[in-house]
Amino acid sequence: MNLSISQNSEAPVKESNRIKRVNQAMNCNECFLILPVLKTTISKSKNPISHYKHQFKIKAFISADIPFSKLRNKHLQKLFNNMKFPLPSETSCRDLEKKVYENSMIDIKNYLSNRNEFFMIVDETSLKGLANKPDISYLVCCDFLEKSPNNNYIKNKISGVISYFNLKPENFILLLSDAASYMKLGGLKLKNESFNFDNGKIVHFHKLFHITCIVHLYHNITGKIISHYSNINELIISINIALSKCASRKKLYKNSLATEFL
């Protein structure tokens, strides 16, 4: 089971992107997502059956990545009316959006509670899952950040997710992240500090093993090499410039060096 925390330092996204993210939360076969930015108010309808039907439709729209503003289209309304499947209004959809989201979070929490060993991926997007379930991952938190996070934010966010979903702290065995300094320090604090959960329990993550992204490690190694061999770096840059605008030269260059590298 994959549990990932995703941070976004950009400004709040537009409606289509937000719906795409909620789409992930609605589809249990792909990802789960916590969106604290959803602040719509739940309307108090006197007809619970109507509420249920509307929620069913809303989930369908979100899964298909259809913005609620499209419901104002007269041709679309006519099409669904002819199929005897009238569309809810845009306002109704927005009023019930938070209810759909909350129900999904409850389902996710019930499913994840007290599961076996798990690992967590922080601020990485290429989620591949486990060997026996490569297409399944759970995106459990997504925050908009106005500035770069620090190590305290990282450790508190991770421990907060574990507490909220009732995951067993002793089963948190692996943390994958990039090699940013705040991530490395945050991982170190997770291993060495104790945390007070909402239920009053004090927990430790002594079994935690923190691994940073190998690509970032390669990047840091190349940066170190470049600092010592600036002439070689300038040579590589000049070759790239010469070959980038001529595909035939690039092919000839690769073919001529292929036997040497082998």
Brief descriptors of the model:
single chain, 262 residues, alpha/beta, 3 domains, two-stranded antiparallel sheet, 9 helices, 7 strands, DUF659 domain-containing protein
Describe the structure.
The structure is a single chain. With 262 residues, the chain is α/β, with parallel strands linked by helices. It folds into three domains: 10-112, no CATH class; 118-215, no CATH class; 229-261, no CATH class. The protein contains nine helices and seven strands. The chain has helices at residues 15-26, 48-63, 74-82, 90-112, 151-164, 181-192, 214-228, 230-244, 247-261; strands spanning 2-8, 118-122, 138-144, 172-177, 194-196, 202-204, 209-212. The strands form two sheets. Strands 3-1-2-4-7 form a five-stranded parallel beta sheet. A two-stranded antiparallel ribbon has the order 5-6. Strand 5 and strand 6 (202-204) form a beta hairpin. It is flat, with a radius of gyration of 24 Å. The two termini are 40 Å apart. Mean pLDDT is 70; it is low at 5-16 and 21-49. This is DUF659 domain-containing protein.
Using only C-alpha atoms, the radius of gyration works out to 24 Å
Terminal-residue CA separation: 40 Å
Low-confidence stretches: 5-16, 21-49
SSE pattern, N- to C-terminal: EHHHHEEHEHEEEHHH
How many β-strand runs?
Answer: 7
Instruction: Give the tally of structural domains.
Output: 3
Q: How is the largest sheet built, in terms of strand order? A: 3-1-2-4-7
* Helix residue percentage: 40-55%
Number of helices: 9
Shape: flat
Oligomer: single chain
| Share in β-strands | 5-15%
- Please summarize the sheet with the most strands: 5 strands, parallel
Secondary-structure-based class equals alpha/beta
- Look at the structure and give the mean pLDDT: 70
